[in-house]
């Protein structure tokens, strides 16, 4: 939805209080019913979309320091600064890494049942059978009761 917003706002994310409210209203408008927990969670976490992505001047100053060049004598902090500097200039495209945690997601009972079914060992064996080109060894698994 952030892409949808930026396309209709000259490539900009919400900046003002009014724009942030409009963005949350956009997310809310996608809800089919008012009890969709994942949309409620998205609205509550919308501030992450608004957060500035640029690296602060303080962090830039540290990464430009000599300690940002890792060597065998570097402290743990120096190694971490060097790793951050390398990430930002290579993979990050000038931005810091994203938060490492995956947010919790509310899921339906049906999803949990499917998840449990796929963790069932017999289902795993059937999946292996279906992935194998020679099904002959699968007969004992597929047809046993």
From TrEMBL:
The organism's place on the tree of life at top rank: Eukaryota
SUPFAM superfamilies: Activating enzymes of the ubiquitin-like proteins (SSF69572)
Single GO term (MF): ubiquitin-like modifier activating enzyme activity
Protein's recorded name: NEDD8-activating enzyme E1 regulatory subunit AXR1-like isoform X2
Organism for this UniProt entry: Raphanus sativus
Phylogenetic classification of the source organism: Eukaryota, Viridiplantae, Streptophyta, Embryophyta, Tracheophyta
């Amino acid at each position: 939805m952030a892409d949808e917003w930026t396309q209709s706002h000259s490539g900009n994310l919400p900046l003002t209080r009014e724009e942030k409210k409009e963005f949350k209203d956009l997310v809310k408008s996608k809800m089919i019913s008012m009890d969709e927990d994942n949309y409620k969670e998205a609205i509550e976490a919308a501030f992450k979309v608004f957060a500035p992505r640029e690296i602060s001047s303080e962090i830039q100053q540290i990464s430009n320091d000599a300690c940002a060049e890792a060597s065998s004598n570097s402290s743990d902090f120096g190694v971490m600064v060097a790793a951050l500097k390398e990430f930002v200039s290579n993979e990050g495209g000038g931005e810091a890494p994203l938060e490492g945690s995956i947010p919790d997601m509310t899921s339906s009972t049906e999803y949990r049942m499917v998840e449990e079914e796929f963790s069932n060992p017999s289902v795993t064996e059937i999946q292996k059978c279906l992935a194998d080109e020679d099904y002959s060894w699968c007969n004992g698994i597929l047809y046993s009761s």
